[in-house]
């Protein structure tokens, strides 16, 4: 049996929740260990950063940017007077660039661990009673860690459909879709969520015929309806074939093709593609995480039950990120990690889910924070709305990126901002005007009275805030 090692904090999971929690706890003077099972592509070494860094947020953004450059060169640069002959995309080189970026950041997190004296263990960690963590190391050994506090940050994994098992070649998840060696002629996608739309966009820009089958009758039901409508119109123009209300019942691989049978709400249909991405959601990665007798409870979906402070109810055991309630977002996990580390140190810590921003990195981008108009109606909250199109913004026109709009929702009586919803260029950055304003209990008038530089895309936020009280300058109210 391995000799027990003692720590103030042991974190299970090295993703954006876990590694951030580990670093913050170390900054606060604690002796910290972080256990992570992720293996780097190629060499199989420790690859800190979790799903987000290795096969999620970062690599997908790298490929989105590469594909966007190619699409702009072949479809938009001519408007600027720029032409090029024999344009081609080297998919293998694009994927290699993505891999290089991932490896760079893997090393960056490792360096941060070293600088903050966080001890990393490469293997699968399981929590046992009395805050003992046993680690099945990838080198074949075992480590036994005893902690005063344990933070469970196991993350999430893709949900696999029983009739469409991942084979890594024809039927893939978010990992496989990042590593195609060439652009598929026909790409099928089950699920019109963030992953489906982003990766569908990547391969559509590179020439694939992309068909997305979504079971729900509404497109982007989580987003504000006006924003979803604008986005759907733009995606249709781009050639993304998004079919709503379609339930897939059968998937078969025949002669290097994937054959799907689905019902569109009226009758059975068939679809034949070369590759199939299954992106129907994610589930908490809690399998094997808890030994018998820990007292930590899982709900019916396999998520760890916690209170509003991310505490499990078991002394010294906390849980954060994708394996607990709330949105499965990297930045939400990071904020919870910091909050928990600070609470362990006796400091106040809190995450306001009402001001967690959401972003979809398509073209145009989609972002929002706070309540949608439908949520306000359903909750009986009196509200008023201001909108403004990017087509009336000088910077957007100069950039040749005029699609989309900004929508500000404010309380009809107090004028306090309830939500901000955006679709357009760089809205992943602009949404934080809404986040900051809402964190400081700001009103639409507060945003309307802030001077915004001209010409900038942020003027759309300014004008939308003015429009809440029918004061927009550059459009008819």
TrEMBL record:
Its cofactor is FAD. Disulfide bonds join 52-57. One of its GO terms (cellular component) is cytoplasm. Residues 7-337 form the FAD/NAD(P)-binding domain. It catalyses: N(6)-[(R)-dihydrolipoyl]-L-lysyl-[protein] + NAD(+) = N(6)-[(R)-lipoyl]-L-lysyl-[protein] + NADH + H(+). It comes from the Bacteria. It is found in: Cytoplasm. NAD(+) binds at residues 191-198, 214, 281. Its main location: cytoplasm. InterPro entries: Class-I_Pyr_Nuc-Dis_Oxidored (IPR050151), FAD/NAD-bd_sf (IPR036188), FAD/NAD-binding_dom (IPR023753), FAD/NAD-linked_Rdtase_dimer_sf (IPR016156), Lipoamide_DH (IPR006258), Pyr_nuc-diS_OxRdtase (IPR001100), Pyr_nucl-diS_OxRdtase_dimer (IPR004099), Pyr_OxRdtase_I_AS (IPR012999). FAD binds at residues 61, 125, 322, 328-331. SUPFAM superfamilies: FAD/NAD(P)-binding domain (SSF51905), FAD/NAD-linked reductases, dimerisation (C-terminal) domain (SSF55424). Its EC number is 1.8.1.4. GO terms for molecular function: dihydrolipoyl dehydrogenase (NADH) activity; flavin adenine dinucleotide binding. Pfam families: Pyr_redox_2 (PF07992), Pyr_redox_dim (PF02852). The keyword Cytoplasm applies. Keywords: Cytoplasm, Disulfide bond, FAD, Flavoprotein, NAD, Nucleotide-binding, Oxidoreductase, Redox-active center. One of its GO terms (biological process) is 2-oxoglutarate metabolic process. Binds 1 FAD per subunit. Residues 356-465 form the Pyridine nucleotide-disulphide oxidoreductase dimerisation domain. The active site is at residue 454. The active site is a redox-active disulfide bond. Belongs to the class-I pyridine nucleotide-disulfide oxidoreductase family. This is Dihydrolipoyl dehydrogenase. It comes from Rehaibacterium terrae.
């Amino acid at each position: 049996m391995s000799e027990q090692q003692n720590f103030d904090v042991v974190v299970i999971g090295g993703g954006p929740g876990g590694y951030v929690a580990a670093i913050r706890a170390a900054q606060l003077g604690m002796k910290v260990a972080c256990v992570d099972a992720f293996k780097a592509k190629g060499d199989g070494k420790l690859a800190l950063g979790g799903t987000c860094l290795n096969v999620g947020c970062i690599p997908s953004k790298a490929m989105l940017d590469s594909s966007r450059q190619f699409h702009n060169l072949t479809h938009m640069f001519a408007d600027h007077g720029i032409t090029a002959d024999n344009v081609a995309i080297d998919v293998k080189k694009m994927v290699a660039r993505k891999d290089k970026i991932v490896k760079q950041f893997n090393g960056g997190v490792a360096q941060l661990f070293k600088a903050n004296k966080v001890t990393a263990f490469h293997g699968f960690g399981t929590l046992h009673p009395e805050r003992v963590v046993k680690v099945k190391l990838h080198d074949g050994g075992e480590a036994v860690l005893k902690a005063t506090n344990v933070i469970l940050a196991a993350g999430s994994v893709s949900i696999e459909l029983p009739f469409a098992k991942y084979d890594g070649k024809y039927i893939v998840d978010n990992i496989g879709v990042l590593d195609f060696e060439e652009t598929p002629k026909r790409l099928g996608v089950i699920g019109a969520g963030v992953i489906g739309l982003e990766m569908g966009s990547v391969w559509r820009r590179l020439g694939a015929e992309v068909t997305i089958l979504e079971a729900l009758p509404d497109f982007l039901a989580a987003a504000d309806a006006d924003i979803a409508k604008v986005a759907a119109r733009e995606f249709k123009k781009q050639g993304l074939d998004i079919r709503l209300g379609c339930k897939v019942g059968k998937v078969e691989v025949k002669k290097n093709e994937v054959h799907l049978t689905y019902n569109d709400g009226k009758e059975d249909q068939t679809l034949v593609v070369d590759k199939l991405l299954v992106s129907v959601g994610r589930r908490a990665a809690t399998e094997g995480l808890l030994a018998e007798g820990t007292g930590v409870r899982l709900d019916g979906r396999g998520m760890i039950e916690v209170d509003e402070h991310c505490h499990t109810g078991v002394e010294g055991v906390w849980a954060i990120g994708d394996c607990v309630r709330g949105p499965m977002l990297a930045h939400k996990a990071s904020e919870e990690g910091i909050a928990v580390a600070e609470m362990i140190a006796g400091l106040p810590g809190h995450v306001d889910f009402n001001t967690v921003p959401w972003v979809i990195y398509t073209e145009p981008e989609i972002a929002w924070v706070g309540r949608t108009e439908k949520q306000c109606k359903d909750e009986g909250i009196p509200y008023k709305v201001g909108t403004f199109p990017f087509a009336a913004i000088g910077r957007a026109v100069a950039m040749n990126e005029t699609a989309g709009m900004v929508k500000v929702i404010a309380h009809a009586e107090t004028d306090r901002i309830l939500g901000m919803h955006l679709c357009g260029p760089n809205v992943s950055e602009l949404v934080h005007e809404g986040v900051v304003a809402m964190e400081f209990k700001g009103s639409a008038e507060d945003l309307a009275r802030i001077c915004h530089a001209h010409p900038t895309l942020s003027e759309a936020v300014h004008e939308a805030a003015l429009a809440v009280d029918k004061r927009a300058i550059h459009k008819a109210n």
